[in-house]
Design goal:
The protein has about 140 residues and is an all-alpha fold. The chain has 7 helices and no strands. Helix 2 (about 20-40) runs parallel beside helix 4. About 30% of the residues are buried.
């Protein structure tokens, strides 16, 4: 980075977010929270309570926990993301079809994003910067 470092909450949050698979952990945690909320829905909406009810609450709570662990302990993201996708798929039969598919998809996509995150990769230059450099190089 060139130039002086900015101080304040927003730049500090951006630096913190860049050092971890933020969107993957957030989506996995949101998927677990969404499934937990659909488990608390009124009985008219509930399609399937699950295996004795316990797994219906345990798996989405584990999804929520794994999403938070990905955010706050990114060094173990591979284990957390593999476990997260397996737990997300396990909510299909146990928790209202995975929170009416929404929580299941959020969990699977978030786990995949966390698994594919590379910590030491240089950020891509913006499209505007690439176009500007390409225009300069043309004769």
């Amino acid at each position: 980075m060139s130039g002086p470092r900015r101080t304040g909450f927003r730049p500090a949050f951006r630096r913190w977010r860049a050092e971890r698979p933020f969107w993957g952990g957030l989506l996995l945690a949101l998927g677990g929270a969404e499934i937990l909320l659909t488990m608390k829905a009124s009985m008219k909406v509930v399609l399937h309570v699950g295996m004795q009810g316990l797994a219906g609450y345990l798996l989405p709570a584990l999804m929520l926990l794994l999403g938070l662990l990905i955010l706050f302990n990114p060094t173990q993201r591979l284990f957390y993301s593999i476990t997260g996708v397996l737990v997300s798929l396990g909510t299909w039969p146990t928790s209202n079809l995975g929170g009416f598919f929404i929580g299941l998809l959020l969990g699977a996509v978030g786990s995949s994003l966390a698994f594919g995150w590379l910590p030491d990769q240089e950020p891509r230059p913006s499209r505007r910067k690439r176009r500007r450099e390409a225009a300069v190089q043309q004769p």
